[in-house]
Design goal:
Number of strands: 22
Keywords: Oxidoreductase
GO molecular function: flavin adenine dinucleotide binding; monooxygenase activity
Number of helices: 8
Protein name: MSMEG_0569 family flavin-dependent oxidoreductase
Largest sheet: 8 strands, mixed
CATH topology of the largest domain: FAD/NAD(P)-binding domain
Number of domains: 2
CATH class of the largest domain: Alpha Beta
Structural class: alpha/beta
CATH superfamily of the largest domain: FAD/NAD(P)-binding domain
Distance between the termini: 38 Å
CATH architecture of the largest domain: 3-Layer(bba) Sandwich
Oligomer: single chain
Length: about 425
């Protein structure tokens, strides 16, 4: 074995909160391992979030192993710098064998068992490999974007920082998931004229009947719902998250209210040709569906309150504050004064560097609670890895403890 080759029990690929959480358990169990991180432990929070980014789940849900939120505002929402401080303080709470700026470029399986991991100039031979690098690798931007006049600036949501970053003029935001809806508000509050292409993302109220909706759902064990019990089964992993915000103490994001205040709403973007945006005729349907999801969540909370005999203030049903006109007229970008397009349509995972038979025909990894059919090969930190709480600060510790148990062969209690 050459000098740059090493043998170790476990290689964890990814040093964010998921990889570090597993490392915390393995350190406690004295398991020989290494955490390989392409950037730094907090780089995604620091480098891929806008300035006014904040959590959409309350601080009390931040429950990394051995490191629960200990601040003075458990029902508040940490802003970007506070999130970075929280993750950094977790990293500082123990001594993980973390190697930053170490990009893994290849993972292959040995014929005799175990795996070969190539990172920078080193080769690691391990019995166990855990992929904790997330699923948000390649920013999605449609092919036709390359034909748009370069005078119109185009950036992806991961590169957006603030309104001052964009040229003067109107902004077209494409996508109404969590990032798109929150960025629209960020621009709108800065006095920018915004147009939003509304997709099929659902919405949820921030507060209902005297409490944060997350508190109600936690009491109802929604975050413990396992993917095999979800009506969509594995399809739950492809669902867009509900849009809501924790900004300034938390409030609803109502796209209809935005429209009433001057934001231009359009249906799903179909294409842009010759600087003219064409939309599907689904704006009303998408707004109505988002409201229905919100109403259904409220109805489930009402049922819980009734079953438990809880005293809670009663709220009147939501009444739409704005309705779209019929039609889906195209939008001439230059005539509308649009100088920037923000693509908020998500990411694609990139696992091309993994040569292990753990993927389906759509190149998506297949697992059961993070455990694949390849012995000793696991995933961690992905949405719906096991429960609705997976991939969030609230559920990572449970998933990490489970995988630590699979690696060590014994039951590991959740910290």
């Amino acid at each position: 074995m050459s000098q740059n080759e090493k043998t170790i029990s476990v290689v964890i690929v990814g040093g964010g909160q998921a990889g570090l959480s597993l490392s915390w358990y393995l350190c406690r169990e004295a398991v020989d391992h290494v955490v390989l991180e392409a950037g730094t432990a907090c780089h995604s929070w620091d480098d891929e979030r806008w300035d006014n980014f904040c959590l959409v789940t309350p601080n009390w849900q931040c429950q990394l192993p051995g490191h629960p939120y200990a601040g003075s505002d458990p029902h508040g929402f940490m802003v970007k710098n506070e999130i970075i401080d929280y993750v950094r303080s977790f990293r500082g709470s123990f001594t993980p064998p973390l190697r930053e700026h170490t990009r893994v470029t290849s993972v292959t399986r040995h014929e005799e068992g175990g795996y070969r991991v190539v990172a920078n100039e080193e080769v690691w031979h391990a019995q166990h490999v855990v992929i904790a690098s997330g699923a948000y690798h390649d920013a999605v931007i449609p092919g036709y974007a390359g034909a748009i006049d370069p005078a119109i600036i185009q950036i992806h949501s991961q590169d957006y920082r603030n309104a001052a970053q964009l040229p003067e003029g109107a902004v077209l935001v494409v996508g109404s998931g969590q990032s798109g809806a929150q960025i629209v508000e960020d621009l709108h509050l800065e006095g920018r004229k915004v147009h939003l292409c509304v997709g099929s993302a659902p919405r949820v109220s921030r507060f209902y009947r005297g409490r944060d909706v997350v508190d109600w759902l936690a009491d109802m064990k929604f975050y413990d719902l396992t993917v095999d019990r979800h009506p969509l089964r594995d399809g739950a992993r492809d669902k867009t998250n509900h849009y809501v915000t924790g900004r300034n103490g938390g409030h609803d994001l109502d796209l209809r209210q935005f429209a009433k205040e001057g934001v231009g709403l359009h249906g799903t973007l179909e294409t842009i040709r010759d600087e003219v945006a064409h939309f599907l005729p689904d704006l009303k349907e998408n707004l109505d569906d988002a409201d229905k999801t919100n109403a259904d969540i409220k109805a489930s909370i009402d049922a819980h309150i009734a079953r438990a005999g809880i005293e809670a203030p009663v709220e009147a049903p939501y009444v739409p504050v704005w309705e779209p006109e019929r039609g889906n007229a195209p939008l001439d970008l230059k005539a509308a004064g649009i100088t920037a397009i923000l693509w908020c349509i998500g990411f694609r995972p990139d696992y091309r560097w993994i040569d292990v038979p753990v993927f389906n025909g759509a190149t998506k990894p297949v697992w059961d609670r993070g455990v694949t059919d390849a012995p000793g090969f696991y995933f961690l930190g992905l949405p719906w890895l096991h429960t609705w709480g997976s991939g969030r600060f609230s559920g990572i510790s449970r998933d990490a403890a489970w995988l630590a148990g699979q690696i060590t062969g014994k039951e590991i209690p959740i910290a």
